[in-house]
Every structure is written in C-alpha cells, then in structure tokens.
C-alpha cells in the first residue's frame, strides 16, 4: 500500500502562488513569470523539491487531487524543474493520460493518424523511461498505424508481464516516481555536480496540460529564439513543424519550416502570420521582463497559440558576452549585472583559438593545460627547427622533453609547445603563458627521443618531425592530426564589458611582460602597468648572448666593465621601448635573477665557438663551465646573491633603467621606474644593493643634469623574507610576492619537476590542487599574510602585490583583495580575465553588504 502524504504537496501555478526557484525550481518559477506576463501558458501544476524527494522515497502525494487541478481526462506533460535549469534533469514525458479509451475518442476528433501517433509516443516514453525497457524495441514511430500500436502494446505486455497501464492516475504516479528516482541516481548526481550543482540539489517537477500540436486546422509545434547562439547577434532562429509535439521541429529531416520568410522555403510567418506576430511580441516581453534572451517552446492547436515553456538560450561564451552587453545597453539590466553574467574563465575562449567542441578528437596523451588556446602544426624537436619552420611559414609544434632559456626564440616561432616534463610554473609554462602560446606540459604517456626525432605514444603509435598534431591548451590534450578550430574574437562588446568591470573593481591589475611585444599586449588589454619585467630574457638574444658570456668569463674588473658597457645601450633601448609602450604607467623591472651558468653553452660545438670568440683554449671554457655549475642552481648563486657578489651587473641595469626613464620622459609621459630586487632573504642584501643603486642614480642625475625619482622594492619569494618583512620593508617602497619561488621553497618542492607526480598527488588528495597553479592559501598564504602585516607595521603605505603565476587566478585575486593588496600581476593574456574576476568579487561583496 502506498503511503499518501497530506502536506501541501503541489501548487497550481497562478500569478500569486507561492513558488520560488529555490523550492520549486527554475522552470516552475519561469512559468509563473510567463503567466504573470499574460502569456498563454496551459494549466500547470508544480511539485516542490520536497515533494519530489518524498516521491523518490516512496511517498506519493494524492495523485487524484493533482489530476483534479486539470479538466476531466487531461493529457499531461511532465518536465523537470531544477533550481538552475543548466543542471538538467530527466527528459520530459508527453501525453501522460493516453489510453485505449482516449485513443478511440481522439480517433474521432483528431483523426486516426494523429491519435495513434500520440499514443505510440507515450507508450515509447513510458516503456523506456518508466518501465526501463530496451529503447531499441520502441524506436520506430515513423508509421503510426493501428497495427504498429497493437504491436507496441503487445511488446510492452510481453516484456513487463502486465498490460500497458490504462489508469491515468497510475500512469502519472509512475512517471513522477521514475523521474524523481532518476534524479537521485549516482550518475545523474555526478553529472549535475560537474555543472556546478551542490550534492543535495533538489528537483521540482511541473505537470502541464498538453496543448496538442496535432489535429485539425493549423496545428503543430516549434521553438523560437531571438539571438544567434554562437554570436549573440539579434536574429530569429528556430523551426516550426505542423502536426508535431515537443521539440520535434528541431529534429533534422522532418519537413520543419522556417519561422521568418526565407527564400529557401516555407515559413510560419506566411503559414500563420497572427501566431508569428504574437511570438515576436512574446519574445520582446520575455526579454524585457525576464531580463534575458529566452528560447520559447510553443504549440499551435487548431490555430491557437500556446507557450509551453521558456528557457535561457544556450550560448557560446562569445554570445554570452554580447547578450549581456546588449541587455545593459538597452537598460534591461544594470551594467554591474552584465559584468556578473559573464564568467571570467569564459574570456579565455574569446582570447585564443579553440578546438571546435563538436570536432572528433583522437586523443594521443594528456598533460597539464599550461597555457590556453589551441594550436595545430607540424612537429619539430628543436628551437632551431621551429625558427626554420616559421621562416617557411609553416605552423609547428615545438616538442621538447622540457624547455630551457635557449629555447625561447623557438617558442616564439612555434604555434604551440608540448613538453614531457614540467608543471604550471616550469619554464615552458611560464614563457608560453607570457607570449600567449598554447602549451601542454608534464604530459603522461609520451616519450620524446631528441636524438632520433621521434615522439612515441604509449599506445604504440610513433610520430616523426613533420607529422601534424593538435594541442588543446584548455584541456591539456594532445590530439592526432589537424582538428578544426574556432577563431578568437574580441569586439566592441568585449571592450565595453571590461570597461564596466574596471569601474567596479577595487584591486589593480598589472601584467608580467618581458619584451616589447608582451608590453604591447599588456597595454592592449589595459593592464595598469607592468608588475614584473624579467630582464634576463633580454640577454638571450643572439647578439647579446655572446657579450653576456664574455662578461661571465671576464676575470679582471675592467674586462667585465668593458662587456657591461656593451650591454648597457642594448638594455637602455629595451627599457625605453617598454616605458614608451606603457605610456607613463608604472613599470617594475626586476634585476637579473637566474644562475649565470644558464647562459653558458652545454653542447661541445657551442663551447668551441665560445672558445674561438674569447680566444681561449676549449679546456679553459669547459673548466669555467664546470666551476659555475651548482648542485642546486635554483637555491644557489642567483638573484640578489649575484647582485652582491658581482655588483657591476646591477649597476649597469640600474643605469640603463635611469637613462631610459629620462629619455622616455623627455619624449612622452613622465616615467617613475620601479626597480625590484629578486630572491632577497636578509635586510642587509637590500641595504647593500640600495646603497649602490642610489649612488648610480646620483651619478646619472649629475651627468645628465636631470632630476628624476624612482621606487626601489623587494621581490618577496623566500620564506625568510616573509618572516623578516618588517625590517626589509624599512628599505622598500614596495613588496611584490613571487609566489612561484615562494611555493617551491615553502613546500621544498621543485617547480620544474613537480609536474611528474603532481597528478598522482592530487588524485590521492594529498594536495587539493597543484600549489603552483592554485595558491596554497593555508601555507604559502599564511606566509603572505604574515609578511603583509609585518611590512605594513613598518610602513603603512607600502605597496603590496603578487607577481607569481598565481596572480591571474580568481582564488588568488580573492585572497589578495582580502589581504588588502594593491594589485595582482599576471601574464598579459590573463589580464582581461583578472580584471573581470576582480570586478565580480567587488560587486558580489557590495551586494552581500547590502543584503
Ligand atoms: C616567482 O618566483 O614567483 C617569480 C615571479 O619569479 P620567477 O618565476 O621569474 O622566478
Ligand atoms: Mg622567482
């Protein structure tokens, strides 16, 4: 015996019924709004989350009273109504209530074919979704004959051992029960959780009187929307199909007609102008009052239009942005709401080409998605081959075990970069993000043989130089061959939305940019300055590398000075260009950071070439290279330690910065350069470097007769610098957290090698996320908080920022806002995403404060 619960288990949807999206679901709420707007919605009853949950547990409401809400002998549809329609739910079931008697009556009123088609459709849905029979048994509805109907009823009885249920009450009860249970199943739960639903998300159900799209006069059904789902441009799309139900009109090859007049064929506008005009009117009403672009599902029953449902138009990221901006421009929604309607991550799709989501994928391997976008090209195994390929105009994918500074030019030439090793902050990942090149690192299931120029896949396949592959930098997939792409699109709407975002946000966004090309990108994306310019990348250019090597080999101070004098004008020009591009916005230049041996040759041929240019025996070159090699270079002679032991390098850089600032200021906007000292761990390091740089500034002022100011700051990237931030702040105008090295040193985890086991660690839940990708707020975050507090205790006006790769992530931006940082700095391509994310956080906080 079924237990009948007597709580108010359902509500007839009327303009005043107590229905909310949080208790009855988005569809029920939307239907109520349509009713309030006076749209012709058939009688509808809404079952709350609670009721549906009870049904799944075996407690049915009084079905008789649900049926009583309708005319006698109704035909009904049942649809899911989850809180957020995007979370989905079980498919709709139409024509509940159809049985032999109803069929016989409808044969007389609607004709045999229409009546039989309806009944067959219901039998099929019921058999598959309620009785859980094999769908193949009932998949042919194309021939609605009496014989087919008898056969379907017989098949049903054979399979279930009982006749097809005739009682509408029983039919409805079973449909409700099966939909309620389907929602509680594990697969459905995992699916909706993947779409962002909480684990305990509820399901409501709506039971609606069918508006039949079959029978006499003009009858049929269709779907209409008023924007192009790919671009968001205004455009009426959809189809109408006579003698049909549900979304049949959208099924291909069924004789559906266009909605507006169309040279390609018949249209609803011609077939039924009054219905078409009403639909246009309803579309306008929905947009204005529901404040959204809606897709309307409608039926025409003997010439009468009914609106069955309206759902948010499914849309691409590009369309979502265009629609939000247009709604705000038309004053349907406020600008801040338009900003909130575009998820920051969606901008990635607009900034880079993407693999077409509908394209077939032959996945060769998976790695860490290190830099977004997609690239197709021929495999090359060396930076030189990448440059040659670019010179031939052939897009290529640079495939390396890992990349090193000498690969940078090859990376610039490649359409994409694939590495076997590395993690989110490995060399390949950082550079690729900086230059906006799609990149996959730490790739599982491949092995690269540089000597034989082969890329081997664990499934046995093997690729040679020249073979084509595709990288999907959004998913980390490596795909065989050429896969179709969607081109990036930045338009007016993009610029407008970001301007509105800027008006709302309360934390600055700068870019990490090392080259003029990156600075231009940063400027184009409206970064508020450069937060980190890694100067060492400037020394890898061919003409400079040799001079750099000569500097490293110089024993005598005057020899070293001679080489630095050669480098000075080159650096000065670099900085003039950066200052000019940034047009007066702040530029933070980090002094030389990497270990010197990174500039030395590792191959014998390169050593011989260096020996020639230095006029030294090769043995002396190799001995010097050995002498400079370190067991732990990342913890060795690098950063400020070089600045202390070979101070002439920083002197030269400081001079280049000051002279460039003077030059750029005389030609354009005034420049106040910011100089940043890397890898500091003791206040004395700052004192020594500051004294020398102040002296260089004084000398340049005297030599040029020009006054200028500058700001000197510290890159906080060692745990000790965080702990001693109070005394370090005494000599610093700003502290910028280098969270790549800080994460490496806090965890004692190599940023270049962690990728090898990171997925294992994350899969086992040892780490929630890769800490090089998502800021570890508990550990590294605590160090940041301590440092910020101690730094501010010394100087309350000190500028605080983050410039590690974490800077562009929403979670880090949230952390930095909470900690009261002044700005975040991230790769140029992430600047728009960071601007939008920061705006979301500020707007949401403002809303929370008001409520
Ligand atoms: C850092 O360590 O966080 C940083 C930004 O510097 P780099 O990545 O150049 O070491
Ligand atoms: Mg660093």
Q: What does this protein structure show overall?
A:
By secondary structure, the protein is α/β, with parallel strands linked by helices. It folds into four domains: 11-209, Dna Ligase, domain 1; 220-315, ATP-grasp fold, B domain (D-amino Acid Aminotransferase, Chain A, domain 1), CATH 3.30.470.20; 353-486, Phosphohistidine domain (Glucose Oxidase, domain 1, 3-Layer(bba) Sandwich); 505-595 and 630-850, Alpha-Beta Barrel (TIM Barrel), CATH 3.20.20. It contains 33 helices and 31 strands. Helix 15 links the parallel strand 14 and strand 15 (396-400). The longest helix is centred in the last third of the chain and has 26 residues, at 557-582. The protein starts with a strand and ends with a helix. Bound molecules: phosphoenolpyruvate and magnesium ion. Residues 717, 738, 740-741 line the site of magnesium ion.
Question: Regions with pLDDT < 50 over 5+ consecutive residues?
Answer: 1-7
Compute the CA-based radius of gyration.
Answer: 34 Å
Number of helices: 33
Overall pLDDT metric: 91
Report strand order across the widest sheet.
24-25-26-27-28-29-30-31
Would you give the CATH topology of the largest domain?
TIM Barrel
CATH class of the largest domain: Alpha Beta
Number of domains: 4
Large-scale geometry: elongated
Q: What about the largest sheet?
A: 8 strands, parallel, barrel
Cofactors and ligands: phosphoenolpyruvate, magnesium ion
Function: Catalyzes the reversible phosphorylation of pyruvate and phosphate.
EC number: 2.7.9.1
GO molecular function, one term: kinase activity
Organism: Candidatus Rhodobacter oscarellae
């Amino acid at each position: 015996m079924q237990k009948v619960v007597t709580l108010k288990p359902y509500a007839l949807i009327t303009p005043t019924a107590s229905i909310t999206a949080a208790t009855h679901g988005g569809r029920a709420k939307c239907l109520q709004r349509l009713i309030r707007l006076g749209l012709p919605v058939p009688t509808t009853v809404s079952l709350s989350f609670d009721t549906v949950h009870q049904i799944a547990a075996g407690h049915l409401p009084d079905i008789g009273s649900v049926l009583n809400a309708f005319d006698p002998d109704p035909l009904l549809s049942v649809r899911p109504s989850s809180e957020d329609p995007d979370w989905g739910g079980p498919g709709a079931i139409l024509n509940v209530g159809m049985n032999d008697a109803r069929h016989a009556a409808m044969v007389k009123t609607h004709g045999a074919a229409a009546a039989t088609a309806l009944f067959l459709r219901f039998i099929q849905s019921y058999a598959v979704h309620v009785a859980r029979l094999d769908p193949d048994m009932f998949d042919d509805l194309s021939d609605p004959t009496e014989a087919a109907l008898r056969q379907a009823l017989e098949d049903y009885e054979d399979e279930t051992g009982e006749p097809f249920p005739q009682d509408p009450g029983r039919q409805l009860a079973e449909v409700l029960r099966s939909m309620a249970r389907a929602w509680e199943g594990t697969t459905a739960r995992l699916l909706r959780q993947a779409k962002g639903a909480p684990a305990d998300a509820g399901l409501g159900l709506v039971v609606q009187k069918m508006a039949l799209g079959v029978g006499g006069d003009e009858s049929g059904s269709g779907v209409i929307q008023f924007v192009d789902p790919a671009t968001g441009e205004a455009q009426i799309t959809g189809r109408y199909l006579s003698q049909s139900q549900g979304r049949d009109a959208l099924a291909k090859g069924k004789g559906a007609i266009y909605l507006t007049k169309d040279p390609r064929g018949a249209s609803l506008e011609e077939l039924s102008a009054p219905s078409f005009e009403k639909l246009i009117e309803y579309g306008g009403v929905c947009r204005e009052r529901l404040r959204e672009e809606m897709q309307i599902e409608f039926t025409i029953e003997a010439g009468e239009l009914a609106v069955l449902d309206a759902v948010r138009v499914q849309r691409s990221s590009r369309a979502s942005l265009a629609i939000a901006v247009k709604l705000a421009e038309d004053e349907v929604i406020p600008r801040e709401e338009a900003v909130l309607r575009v998820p920051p991550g969606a901008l990635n799709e607009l900034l880079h080409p993407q693999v077409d989501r509908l394209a077939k994928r032959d996945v060769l391997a998976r790695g860490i998605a290190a830099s977004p976008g997609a690239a197709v090209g021929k495999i090359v195994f060396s930076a030189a081959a990448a440059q040659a390929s670019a010179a031939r105009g052939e897009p290529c994918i640079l495939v390396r075990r890992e990349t090193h500074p000498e690969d940078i030019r090859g990376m610039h030439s490649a359409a994409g970069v694939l590495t076997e090793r590395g993690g989110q902050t490995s060399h390949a990942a950082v550079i690729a993000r900086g230059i906006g090149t799609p990149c996959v690192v730490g790739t599982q299931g491949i092995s690269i043989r540089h000597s034989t120029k082969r890329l081997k896949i664990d499934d046995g396949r093997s690729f040679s130089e020249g073979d084509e592959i595709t990288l999907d930098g959004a998913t980390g997939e490596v795909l065989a061959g050429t896969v179709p792409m969607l081109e990036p699109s930045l338009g007016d709407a993009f610029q407008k939305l970001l301007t509105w975002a800027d008006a709302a946000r309360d934390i600055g966004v700068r870019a990490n940019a090392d080259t003029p090309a990156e600075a231009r990108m940063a400027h184009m994306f409206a970064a508020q300055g450069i937060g980190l310019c890694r100067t060492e990348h400037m020394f890898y250019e061919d003409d400079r590398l040799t001079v750099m090597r000569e500097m490293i080999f110089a024993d005598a101070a005057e020899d070293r000075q001679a080489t630095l004098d050669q480098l000075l004008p080159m650096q000065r020009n670099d900085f003039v260009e950066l200052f000019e591009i940034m047009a007066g916005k702040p530029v933070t230049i980090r002094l030389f950071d990497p270990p010197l041996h990174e500039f030395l040759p590792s191959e014998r041929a390169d050593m011989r070439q260096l020996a020639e240019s230095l006029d030294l025996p090769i043995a002396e070159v190799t001995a010097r290279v050995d002498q400079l090699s370190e067991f732990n270079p990342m913890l060795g002679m690098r950063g400020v330690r070089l600045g202390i032991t070979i101070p002439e390098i920083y002197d030269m850089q400081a001079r280049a910065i000051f002279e460039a600032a003077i030059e750029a200021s005389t030609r354009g906007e005034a420049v106040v350069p910011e100089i940043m000292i890397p890898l500091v761990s003791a206040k004395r390091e700052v004192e020594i470097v500051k004294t020398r740089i102040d002296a260089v500034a004084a000398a340049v002022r005297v030599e040029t007769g020009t006054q200028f100011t500058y700001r000197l700051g510290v890159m906080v990237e060692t745990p000790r610098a965080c702990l001693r931030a109070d005394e370090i702040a005494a000599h610093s105008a700003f502290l910028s957290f280098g969270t790549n090295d800080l994460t490496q040193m806090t965890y004692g985890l190599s940023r270049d090698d962690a990728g090898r086991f990171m997925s294992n660690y994350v899969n086992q839940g040892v780490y929630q996320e890769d800490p090089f990708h998502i800021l570890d707020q508990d550990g590294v975050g605590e160090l940041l908080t301590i440092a910020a507090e101690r730094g501010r205790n010394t100087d309350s006006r000190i500028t605080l920022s983050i410039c590690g790769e974490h800077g562009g992530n929403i979670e880090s931006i949230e952390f930095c806002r909470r900690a009261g940082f002044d700005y975040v700095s991230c790769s140029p391509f992430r600047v728009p995403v960071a601007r939008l994310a920061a705006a979301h956080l500020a707007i949401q906080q403002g809303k929370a404060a008001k409520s």
